[in-house]
Amino acid sequence: MTLIVIIHGPMACGKTRNKQALMHAFRCDHAIDDWDGRESLSLTKFVRGTGVVPIGEKCLVLTNNPNPRAPSSSAEIYSFGEAMRKSGLAN
């Protein structure tokens, strides 16, 4: 089962700039940036020579939508500020 960490915040708040640090802090092996928070979230990727494969065990998803729709019960949802504090990247 893929676990999902969704982080929402306004445009230009630092989600993408801190993506690698957040991936490390939440132990994510893949990231989806700029999800709209409403549409279905694809948890697969295309790999040349292999086709469509699952993205990994734990995925970080970044969105501007302040009320993202969780795609599954295994999703954790944080505001950008909450995520930065939980990860130890901010006070």
Question: How is the biggest beta sheet arranged?
Answer: 4 strands, parallel
Domain unit count? 1
Spatially, the strands of the biggest sheet line up as 2-5-1-6
Number of helices: 2
Topology, element by element:
Elements: E1 3-8, H1 19-25, E2 30-35, E3 44-47, E4 51-54, E5 58-63, E6 75-79, H2 80-86
Parallel strand pairs: 1-5, 1-6, 2-5
Antiparallel strand pairs: 3-4
Essential attributes:
two-stranded antiparallel ribbon, 34% strand, 91 residues, alpha/beta
Descriptive account of the structure:
It is built from 2 helices and 6 strands, in the order E-H-E-E-E-E-E-H. The model has no long low-confidence stretch (mean pLDDT 85). The N and C termini lie far apart (32 Å). The protein has one domain (3-86). Strands 2-5-1-6 form a 4-stranded parallel sheet. The chain is an alpha/beta fold and 91 residues long. The longest helix has 7 residues, at 19-25. The protein is globular, with a radius of gyration of 13 Å.
